[in-house]
Amino acid sequence: MSTKYTRGSFQLMKSMNRSIILNMIRKQGPISRADIAKQSRLTPPTVSNIVKELINTKFVIETTQGTSKGGRKPTLLEINVDYFYILGIDVGTTSVKFVVTNLFGDLKDTTSLEIPAFPTNENLISIMKEGIRLLLSNGNNDPGKFLGVGVGMHGIVDPEKGISLFAPSFQLKNIPIKEELEKEFNMIVNVENDARAMTLGEYWFGHGNDADNMVGVNVGNGIGAGLMVKGRLFHGENNLAGEIGHITIDLSGPKCPCGNYGCLQTLAAGPAIAERAKKELKSGTHSLIRDLVQGDLEQVDGKVVYEAALQNDEFSIQLLYQTGRYLGIGLTNLIHTINPKRIIIGGGVSKAGPYLMEGIEETIQSRGLTDKAKETSIVLSKLGDHASAIGACVLILEEFFSR
Ligand SMILES: [Zn+2]
Q1: Which H helix or E strand runs over 167?
Q2: What would the pLDDT profile of 337-383 be if each residue is shown by its tens digit?
Q3: pLDDT at residue number 196
Q4: Residues 6+ positions from 300 with CB-CB distance below 8 Å
Q5: Residues with CB under 5 A from ligand 1 (ion)
């Protein structure tokens, strides 16, 4: 399959002046050529030439007339937002989500595919290929208009090489995602850890847009964080930064799949919530959960606990409150390490956000070192279920708009 926007055409777009102008139109559009020249200090002929090229390549369109101080009204410029698409993939632990977005991260199409138990590297790659083919072959999506594919993958990822170095949920190593997908589809493919992708998505299109120092925390089957420092994702020396699911919260806590005891995710991730609920219910605690799973305690998962809380089940509400307290300890550690302006909580468990928030806030209030630490804003993800997949799209947008 051949598409127009291969790596070569990206390089053409990447002149410094072009990206200055393109970003100005993206962030401030509709904007006039004159205002671009004034703000960028580029000469009006330079601006004119580059804008002409951006219009020819369909990235920018002329739009409604602006207001004029006498004389001819200036024509304004804006991003041709729906002319191009990005494909985003979020590889979870049980399923892979696929989305198509426009240049402003708006969802245009979605699908998802199940991951079989104990997948191999080849299984995962072929599921990704199948989902991409499904969305490219949807009649509404012109394959020639796709700028690239972004992939958010749980575990340790090398974004430079586009390799999943270690996916703990599958015990898989060295999955060459970028290489395999670029070979198959002849499109740019960028790969990143899922929590980092989520953080990037929130930074561009969600609740993070005014916070250059911020953290996105993905709470699902595991817990991971994306650290945004001065507007750039921070990876650390070996792409390990943000593995907060494995900071120790309780020395004598439950055993974690990583081999340690009392890691944050053994106390606050989805499976941990389910385990604590089961343990209490087995010892006879009264709860609506028992009815919701018709007495079969093996069916208890984080979702059932949340559903019971929604129906005012006191046990479930308390359990989620306690989970919020554990999360609050993890977030307080983050505040003291990174000092972010904002922490954004996403992932499946964040759906129970209203029940977690009280415990989170209380803990930060009682443990934060200074008043400013206590004032750190904690919010739930704006992009919700698709945050990591939309964030994966930003991996392509970021490359495209970057200098
Ligand atoms: Zn651990």
Answers
A1: strand 163-167
A2: 999 999 999 999 999 999 999 999 999 999 999 999 999 999 999 99
A3: 98
A4: 274, 277, 278, 281, 289, 293
A5: 246, 256, 258, 260, 263
Residue 153 structure tokens:
């993958």
For residue 343, give the H/E element and its range: strand 342-346
Cα distances from 64 to residues 23, 27, 30, 60, 61, in angstroms, run 19, 17, 8, 13, 10
Q: What domains lie within the chain, and their CATH numbers?
A: 7-79 (1.10.10.10), 85-204 (3.30.420.40), 207-381 (3.30.420.40)
Cα(90) to ligand 1 centroid in Å equals 22
Separation of alpha carbons 144 and 84, rounded Å: 9
Task: Check whether 282 has a pLDDT greater than 60.
Answer: yes
List, in order, residues 6 or more apart from 259 with CB less than 8 Å away. Answer: none
Ligand 1 centroid vs 344 CA: distance in angstroms? 22
227 pairs with which residues across the strands? 215, 234
Q: How far apart are CA 379 and CA 268, in angstroms?
A: 17
Q: Is 162 left (phi over 0), alpha (psi -120 to 50) or beta?
A: left
Task: Give the separation between CA 233 and CA 197, rounded to whole angstroms.
Answer: 9
79 vs 280: CA distance, rounded Å: 55
DSSP type of residue 115 = P
Identify the burial level of 53 via C-beta atoms within 10 angstroms of its C-beta, where 0-12 means exposed, 13-18 middle and 19 or more buried. middle
Distance 207 CA to ligand 1 centre (A): 28
245 three-state secondary structure: helix
Between the alpha carbon of residue 334 and those of residues 92, 215, 274, 330, 368, the distances in Å are 24, 8, 25, 6, 10
Cα-to-centroid distance, 255 and ligand 1 (Å): 8
The pTM assigned to this predicted structure is 0.91
- DSSP-based helix, strand, coil % in the chain, nearest 5: 45, 20, 30
Q: How far is the CA of 397 from the centre of ligand 1 (A)?
A: 33
398 close to 91: Cβ distance less than 8 angstroms = no
